[in-house]
Design brief:
single chain; 20-stranded mixed β-sheet; 27 helices; globular; disordered N terminus
Length: 1797
């Protein structure tokens, strides 16, 4: 493990400097990036940044979603996976040796994990896609191509599919939460970090974590999210049902409003989405966004309505379907930019509100700006825009656009006309004029003023609503109410408003309004007067007929007559009926308007029918009169009330239901009384019982049974004293189905019919029960869990009173035996204690073995045991068995449910395979929510061959032998899952006969052929028992027995196992213990020890291979053999240790093995403390002597001289100790081979000279990592780590070395390498020493260390050492070099050293000290830190050290004013920017260099990397132009265009053209070239496009004909309108031919086509015309003959061949025009029914790719793959002809032939 950790660390460090360019700056102690919070990869990015493995940008960001190029990624991979090959070469057209990535691409290609494109390029600066990365990872990690299907919904290229499956299964890369992989997307910086991290961990054996992808799905209606505050959901969210309100959440991923919403509604309140929002559901109602922030929304469902309100901001809305967008009361940005996608042709879009920008890309889209405004409207396709909304700017880039409104400004593209505001704007070619139009001013339409009510002569208390309107969209209306003329400074009309009279006596209000709109003439002023008058009015009810003796409950028609005053103003009369003193309970019985022709007193009446007079009081009629100016603002003038008299109706009879009732004690049932007649006035009833000791009744008729007996319940009416009775019988046992009572449960069972329900009253029931039919047995506590405090009196079922067992063990008597399907037992206490008190078995009176035993004698299923209490049994509380001991096996019991029971005191003191709380044998089903207490075994499952499997979940047990036991799974047994159970150990009963161990989970007798068993998220707690108990031996968490076969599949995941001596013991099977340890929680400090997982025992040493404990470590060492592992538990071990020679491959592991020493307190387990030193390699030698305790040679043994150097100690590991020594050293190594010392704390109480010391001997290799070494002697010559020896090598990493120095003259070293040893010193912290690092040997590498607060930081006395990437601070002298050595000190942070940063002591001593940061800003300040001969340039001035002075250099280049200044700045900052000037200086002309500067001028480059890439691209462009500018002939120009044109951005179609057309283009380019040549690619492209654009239709058509692989493809080409037009074909005669004749014309063109293809369109015209003529002139028979002549490979057996296998036109046999089974053919989507078919539309010829689609793979495989499995299959049409004179046409012919065959 130590080596693997070191290797992973080493791999990370090797890529750190490249990451500084690709993933940010050279990392120092960087703060966490500001832009990754909430990002899905936040944790991993933060981890890499914190460790200095990746950096951010100077502005404090990481830019996790930026892309990485192909060159950058292969460079990262090479370093990460240590790929090196100095001899490798790169043979790609676009890769030159001057490029920084040349060697990286060369190594990658040599290693075979990448390849280029078919055109010979690599495209190094293209972003690398996710599928390309997947292919690289699969190749490098050897994942193979047999991984199962990953199941991504979107497509992956065929060449990458196996790789994507492999990396997904290996958890190197994951997909997205919508089920896609997005194979072609460029990989981001964040994805690159995570992918590389997982891949590197996989190479050292660590299992990558599941991709950090989370999806939260809401599929039930409701409100989600906190009521206050904000919750963050780290991942994606999907809403898949309507009626969901999501509030106060931040979503770091995407939000999907899925199709499951249907036409329903979704409301988002205060929701922030960091990713994309996709709308696939919702209807014409609304998706409401209130106070939301969403960067983008994509709508794919037609007709959905999305409303933004409040502080909502949506940056981009993309409509891929029709939709309505509404912005109402928005205080945020609303919908900023709306794009109607080009994929949404013909949709309708409605916009309401204000929009910043609307882009219409969809053809025939209909956009209605119903209201509001659009600032910028851009229309790129034929579309129609309508509505009343205002448009400020319209940009029209397509013809046939219609905009009904008149925008303030309209601009049309060149040669574009449109209809805008009823006028034609823009110009066509030849039409002259510009491309824009400004409409003339028109007047705003007149303002209409409407009032409600509409009359203008009103009472003075009337509220009048005023509405102002104009027909001109976007116009503003301003108004006054005082008769003055309105202007734009008057009150702005924002909606209808109300006015009333100006005073008590009435008066007149004058409303005036004007319409104003920019670019328009204001409207005329509109005016309206409203007069208010005084008001009077009275009303009185004259009569109501009938007004008394009204019969309650009967519909009655009556008339109300009123008298009222009328003053000429319209009135309203309202009639209300109500039956209480409060008017708010009413029924409207009439209303109406009253308009009389004269003032005075008038009468009115209304007729109504009242159906329900109510029960309280008399009915009343309320009438009021009001003036009627507004429906919502009645002014009530007067009212009157009239009370009607209701007739009383007496009771005639009463009855009750049911008339008879049978109950068990404690049960309640309702009796209902019915009174006649139904409209009785007084319906009150009283209830009584004649025997309340048997049954009681409450005022509502609820009867409660009390005791066995009978009672009469009487209902008596208050009116008339009428009575009715119900006879109640209370029994112990009742069949509620039959309504019959019994004295015993068994009698009820015997008399029951299948399916009946039996209710049992509380009480004691003695006797054995047998249930042999389907039925439900309910106790008084049915529905109440057995462990609930809410249970009432129990029905106790037990054995007969007379039963008295002398010895309960293995007693087979059973309280309840079940022998039938469909049985439910619910709500009982079932006990073996019959109350006789005769037997004391561990404190219990046990008189039975079983509580319930379900035995299958025939088919048995659907058994439910719930809500019961089981106690006091010796064998089993609840059992299911697949047969009986003397009957045999009858197959499984299916669908058993055992839930919510309390099972206790199931005791077996002799451990005779009994004492089970629940025992499920040969059954399927579930065991859930049970509590098992004080029992030998909690739950045992023995599935045998039962196929259905089952679930054991949420159970709790307290047991003294087993918690959960899984056994006897046979081949074919179904899957069982044990999940979220809690098992707790308790002390065994004192009466238990023999001591025993406790196991929380035990697995036995489990074959490889059975289905898996899963243990997930269970809790095992062994702390409840003590090994000090006299009847307890050991406590184990899990045991896998030796009866478990290899490859038996089981999973342990998420379990917590504590309070045990052994967490897991594996005696059988091959369960991977490392995985189990990683995926479950064990006691602190647990590790894999042999076949166990355990924390080492305190104060003991354990030899795994010998399975033996020792009292001392030395005893264990002495007894150990080669390859043994000794685990040492926590505790203190006195005395020195000696490991003698020839103890090879010994591993000595303390309690903290694998846990670095430098962790915070509490992060390491209790320590294994050695109070002494460890001496290695000086013990018993071949002579047989022994060593003294101090390690010196001892006296001789029988075989020879004393202990000496007679051997070596190889492969030693010392891991996880605290070594507290007072001797001369902590660990001393002599005569050793490879030795690993890791994770130790070594301290010396101020007296020890060396923490770890090695001696000269052989060629040892030392791995010393993650130790803490301190408190050592400060004497000269002391060292925390001393490596010496001419052939010794060492890896020293992650150590903290501190020696407290009190003597100013002392020179104790932190780490010292001497006497020819060689070391890699990596990521150590060396502080507080006299000398930090002493390198008294050559060729050491010192990287990533912190060397601080020493007298001398790094002391160099030999040459060839590399000091890179360290922090050297706070020392007296940072780096000192002596003895004429020469070393390299680069990329370090050297600052705050009190005397000198770097010093050389002697002449001849030199240092290369470049690219370091000194904490200062001037050269003078750097020089002040130096002493002696030091070469320090270049040096850093910025602390972050992102690149060499790069930030200032980039700023300077960005601010350059002209190309001359920019050229000078590039020179000045060449090193800081990392620019390669080789090609720039040596190959470019002055003009070319000037063009490079011009290309860079005015750029705003974010960092040096971006600027460097732009520089290289500009140089590359000029290099590509050189051959173009030097070509002297047309043929040479053609070849140069072929070679370089693609990279210069020329149209790709050109490269598939024939020589005829390409030479014409080349000639034009050559003749148009100026003396200076083409200065840039844009100039070349302009000239090129002039000619190529003219030739393209024809040249592309020729290419299409040449590419047609067979007659079907040729026919499709000939019938393509664009191709035919390009070729100039006259198809009049052709189209008059039959379909088969046209097919044969196409066949002739294929046959006559030269091997190199048709050279130009004229050749095609000639052959086409001849073929059409032959078809027309010869007719069908002649064509048959012609066909037979041309295709002689097959016998001329006519087209209607009876032997279709011989035809070469189809892959499927064709049986001619007379075919009766056309379904056999497969030319198209529909079967081909013959060449002579009269319905060719069905055939789909054009959809058939050719006669050999297997070879058409080029059409499906991208041309940019990195690791193309079969690049020779790439499409020939995309590859340029090698020479304009077709010198290499053979290869092209072969390619064509390969496709056409």
């Amino acid at each position: 493990m130590g080596y693997e950790r070191r290797r992973y660390l080493s791999m990370i460090v090797t890529v750190v400097f490249l990451l500084s360019i690709v993933l940010g700056g050279i990392p120092t102690a960087l703060a966490q990036p500001s832009d990754v919070q909430g990002h899905w990869a936040e944790k991993k990015i933060a981890e890499w940044v914190a460790k200095g493995l990746a950096g951010g940008y100077p502005d404090g960001t990481f830019k996790p979603n930026n892309h990485i190029t192909r060159a950058e990624f292969v460079a990262l991979v090479n370093r990460a996976f240590e790929k090196q090959d100095p001899t490798a070469t790169a043979n790609f057209k676009d890769i030159k040796q001057s490029h920084w990535f040349y060697s990286e691409v060369a190594v990658a290609a040599q290693a075979g994990y990448v390849s280029g494109y078919t055109d010979g390029t690599f495209k190094p600066n293209n972003p690398i896609s996710r599928q390309e990365v997947a292919s690289i990872m699969a190749r490098l990690l050897g994942l193979g191509n047999d991984a199962p299907e990953a199941g991504f919904k979107d497509s992956v290229a065929a060449w990458a599919k196996d790789a994507v499956n492999a990396v997904a299964v290996a958890r190197i890369m994951g997909g997205y939460t919508d089920g896609t992989f997005k194979a072609t997307n460029p990989i981001t910086r964040a994805e690159a970090v995570v992918t590389l991290d997982r891949a590197m961990k996989m190479t050292v054996g660590e299992k990558p974590q599941e991709p950090e992808v989370t999806t939260v799905t809401y599929d039930k209606a409701g409100t989600y999210g906190p009521a206050t505050g904000t919750e963050t959901i780290r991942g994606d969210v999907a809403i898949n049902v309507s009626g969901v309100t999501l509030q106060n959440v931040t979503i770091t991923g995407d939000l999907l409003l899925a199709k499951g919403i249907g036409e329903g509604d979704v409301i988002l309140k205060n929701v922030t989405v960091k990713g994309e929002t996709i709308v696939e559901g919702g209807g014409s109602n609304s998706v409401v966004l209130q106070d939301c922030s969403l960067p983008s929304i994509t709508i794919t469902k037609d007709g959905v309505r999305v409303v933004a309100t409040g502080n909502t901001a949506v940056s981009v809305v993309t409509l891929e379907s029709g939709a309505t967008l509404v912005a109402v009361d928005v205080t945020g940005d609303g919908f900023a930019t709306v794009t109607v996608s080009e994929d949404a042709a013909g949709v309708k879009v409605v916009l309401r509100g204000d929009f910043e920008a609307v882009n219409v890309e969809a053809k025939d889209a209909k956009v209605e700006i119903a209201e509001g405004s659009v600032k910028d409207l851009t229309v790129d396709a034929k579309a129609t825009v309508t509505g009343e909304g205002e448009i400020e700017n319209a940009y029209i880039n397509a013809n046939d656009v219609s905009i009904a409104q008149k925008p303030a400004n309209t601009k049309t593209a060149k040669n574009v006309t449109a209809k805008v505001g009823g006028e034609t704007v823009g110009t066509r070619t030849g039409g002259g004029g510009g491309g824009s139009s400004t409409p003339s001013k028109t007047e705003v339409s007149a303002i209409s003023i409407t009032t409600d009510p509409g009359d203008v002569n009103l009472p003075n208390n009337t509220l009048v609503t005023i509405t102002l309107e104009t027909a001109t969209g976007g116009a503003s209306i301003y108004y006054t109410l005082d008769g003055t003329t309105p202007t734009k400074d008057s009150t702005l009309y924002e909606g209808p408003f109300t006015i009333t009279a100006p005073g008590d006596e009435g008066g007149t209000v004058t409303v005036k309004a004007i319409g104003i709109k920019p670019g328009y003439t204001s409207s005329a002023v509109a005016a309206k007067e409203i007069k208010f008058n005084a008001v009077t009015g009275r009303i009185q009810i004259i009569s109501v007929e009938p007004g008394e003796n009204l019969e309650p409950g009967k519909e009655t028609e009556f008339t109300v007559e009123v008298a009222y005053e009328f003053d000429g103003i319209e009135k309203a009369i309202l009639y209300i009926g109500f039956n209480t003193e409060e008017v708010d309970r009413y029924e409207l019985i009439g209303d109406g308007h009253v308009v009389e022709d004269k003032a005075g007193t008038h009468t009115s009446e209304v007729k109504a029918v009242v159906k329900d007079w109510g029960e309280e009081g008399n009915f009343r009629v309320y009438v009021n009169i009001s003036e009627y100016p507004h429906p919502d603002k009645w002014t009530v003038l007067d009212y009157d009330i009239y009370e009607l008299k209701i007739l009383e109706v007496p009771v005639s009879d009463v009855s009750v239901e049911p008339a008879e009732l049978i109950l068990t004690a404690g049960k309640t049932e309702k009796i209902t009384a019915t009174i006649s007649p139904p409209n009785t006035t007084n319906k009150k009833v009283t209830w009584t019982s004649d025997n309340e000791e048997v049954a009681t009744v409450d005022e509502h008729g609820n009867v409660t049974a009390v005791n066995v007996g009978t009672a009469t319940i009487t209902a008596t009416t208050e009116d008339g004293g009428k009575t009715a009775t119900c006879e109640v019988t209370v029994s112990k046992v009742v069949n509620t189905t039959k309504k019959k009572g019994y004295d015993s449960i068994q009698d009820a069972i015997d008399d029951a019919d299948p399916g009946d329900t039996i209710q049992v009253a509380p009480g004691m029931y003695h006797g054995y029960l047998t249930i042999d039919k389907p039925l439900t047995l309910l106790g008084p506590n049915d529905g109440v869990p057995g462990y609930s405090a809410e249970r009432g009196a129990e029905a106790i079922i037990t054995v007969p009173k007379e039963v008295e067992l002398e010895n309960p063990e293995n007693d087979l008597s059973t309280v309840i035996t079940v022998e039938a399907s469909g049985v439910t037992i619910d709500g009982f206490r079932i006990t073996g204690d019959n109350g006789n008190g005769k037997t004391n078995y561990a404190g219990c009176n046990i008189q039975a073995g079983y509580g319930i035993n379900a035995i299958r004698f025939d088919k048995m299923e659907n058994l439910t045991i719930r809500n019961n209490i089981f106690d006091c049994f010796s064998v089993i509380g609840v059992a299911t068995q697949r047969g009986s001991y003397n009957v045999g096996y009858y197959g499984p019991i299916e669908n058993v449910t055992i839930t919510s029971n309390l099972i206790q005191n199931i005791l077996d003191l002799r451990a005779t395979a009994a004492g089970y709380g629940i025992y499920m044998q040969g059954a399927t089903g579930s065991i859930t929510d049970n509590v098992v207490k004080n029992s030998r075994i909690g739950i045992m499952v023995q599935p045998y061959s039962a196929e259905g499997g089952g679930l054991v979940k949420d159970n709790y047990s307290e047991t003294y032998v087993y918690g959960l036991l899984y056994s006897r799974a046979e081949s074919g047994a179904g899957t069982w899952t044990f999940e979220e159970n809690t098992v707790t150990a308790i002390d065994p009963p004192d009466a238990m006969e023999s001591p025993g161990l406790w196991r929380g989970i035990d697995v036995q007798y489990f074959p490889a052929g059975a289905e898996p068993v899963y243990f997930k998220n269970n809790t095992v707690d062994g702390s409840g028992t003590s090994i000090e108990h006299p009847k307890r031996t050991e406590v184990w968490g899990v045991q896998i027995r030796d009866s478990v076969e290899d490859d038996a599949e089981m999973m342990f995941e998420g379990n917590t196992i504590t309070g045990v001596q052994i967490g897991l013991r594996r005696d059988g099977g091959n369960l991977n213990l490392d995985d189990v340890l990683a995926n479950n929680t064990f006691a602190f400090g647990s590790m894999v020890i042999g076949n166990t997982i355990q924390a080492p025992q305190e104060n003991a040493a354990y030899n795994v291979e010998k399975d033996q404990y020792y009292d001392s470590i030395q005893e264990a060492i002495d007894d150990a053999g080669d390859g043994n592992t000794i685990f040492v538990g926590p505790g203190t071990y006195e005395g020195n240790l000696a490991i003698p020679n020839n103890k090879n491959n010994l591993a000595l592991k303390g309690a903290n093995a694998g846990i670095p020493a430098g962790l915070e307190p509490g992060e390491r387990a209790p320590e294994s403390i050695i109070k002494g030193s460890i001496s290695v390699g000086s013990g018993k030698g071949k002579g047989g002597g022994r060593s003294e305790p101090d390690g010196s040679r001892g006296p001789g043994g029988p075989g020879g001289p004393g202990g000496g150097q007679g051997g070596t100690v190889r492969g030693l590991t010392i891991d996880g100790f605290t070594i507290d020594s007072s001797a001369g050293y902590g660990i001393r190594l002599r005569a050793t081979g490879e030795t690993t010392i890791v994770n130790n704390i070594i301290t010396g109480n101020g007296t020890v000279q060396y923490g770890i010391r090695t001696e000269d001997a052989g060629s040892p290799h030392f791995i010393i990592c993650n130790n803490t070494i301190g408190d050592y002697s400060s004497d000269n010559g002391s060292a925390g780590i001393l490596i010496r020896g001419s052939n010794a090598t060492a890896e020293i990493g992650g150590n903290l070395v501190t020696i407290t120095t009190s003597d100013d003259e002392a020179e104790a070293a932190g780490i010292e390498i001497t006497r020819g040893a060689e070391a890699v010193i990596l990521d150590n912290n060396v502080s507080g020493n006299g000398l930090g690092l002493v390198l008294d040997s050559r060729d050491n590498t010192v990287t990533g260390n912190v060397v601080e607060n020493n007298d001398w930081g790094i002391y160099l006395s030999r040459s060839g050492n590399s000091i890179t990437g360290n922090t050297i601070r706070g020392n007296v002298i940072g780096v000192a070099a002596v003895d004429r050595s020469h070393n390299t000190v680069t990329f370090n942070r050297i600052y705050d050293n009190s005397l000198k940063g770097v010093s050389t002591a002697l002449d001849g001593t030199s240092l290369t000290v470049t690219h370091n940061w000194w904490g200062v800003s001037t050269v003078a300040e750097v020089i002040a830190q130096l002493s002696g001969k030091v070469d320090f340039n270049p040096w850093y001035v910025d602390e972050e050290m992102t690149t060499l002075c790069s930030e200032a250099a980039v700023d300077a280049v960005n601010s350059a004013r002209d190309e001359a200044e920019l050229q000078a700045l590039l020179r000045e900052h060449q090193l800081a920017l990392g620019l390669d000037f080789t090609a720039y200086d040596n190959e470019l002309t002055e003009i070319g260099r000037l063009q490079v500067a011009l290309a860079l001028l005015g750029g705003s480059y974010p960092d040096a990397a971006a600027l460097r890439f732009a520089f290289e691209a500009a140089v590359e462009e000029q290099l590509l132009l050189i051959p173009i500018n030097t070509a002297s002939t047309v043929e040479e120009m053609c070849r140069k265009l072929d070679e370089n044109g693609l990279f210069l951005g020329l149209a790709p179609d050109y490269f598939g053209w024939t020589d005829y057309y390409r030479l014409q283009v080349a000639e034009h380019v050559l003749n148009s070239r100026q003396a200076r040549g083409y200065e840039n690619a844009g100039a070349l492209k302009g000239v090129f496009d002039e000619k190529a654009g003219v030739l393209a239709p024809t040249a592309n058509a020729v290419t299409a004909v040449n590419n047609a692989g067979d007659w079907a493809a040729m026919k499709a080409a000939l019938e393509d309108e664009d191709i035919a037009a390009g070729l100039g074909l006259d198809r009049t005669a052709y189209l008059a031919l039959s379909r088969v004749e046209r097919s044969l014309v196409a066949a002739i063109l294929v046959d006559e086509r030269p091997a190199t293809g048709y050279g130009n369109h004229e050749e095609i015209q000639r052959v086409f015309e001849l073929a059409v003529a032959e078809a027309r002139d010869n007719g069908l028979d002649g064509m048959r003959e012609l066909f037979e002549e041309k295709f002689t490979e097959e016998p001329a057996d006519e087209l209607v061949d009876k032997n279709p296998e011989e035809e070469e036109f189809a892959k499927e046999p064709e049986d001619g025009s007379g075919d009766d089974n056309p379904g056999e053919l497969e030319y198209g989507k529909e079967a081909d029914d013959g060449l002579f078919d009269d319905n060719p539309v069905e055939e789909g010829y054009a959809e058939e790719p050719g006669e050999n689609p297997v070879e058409e793979e080029y059409a499906e495989e991208p041309l940019d793959e990195l690791v193309d499995e079969n690049p020779e299959k790439e499409g020939f049409a995309g590859e340029s002809v090698d020479d304009c004179s077709n010198e290499n046409s053979t290869e092209e012919d072969i390619s064509r032939e390969a496709v056409a065959q």
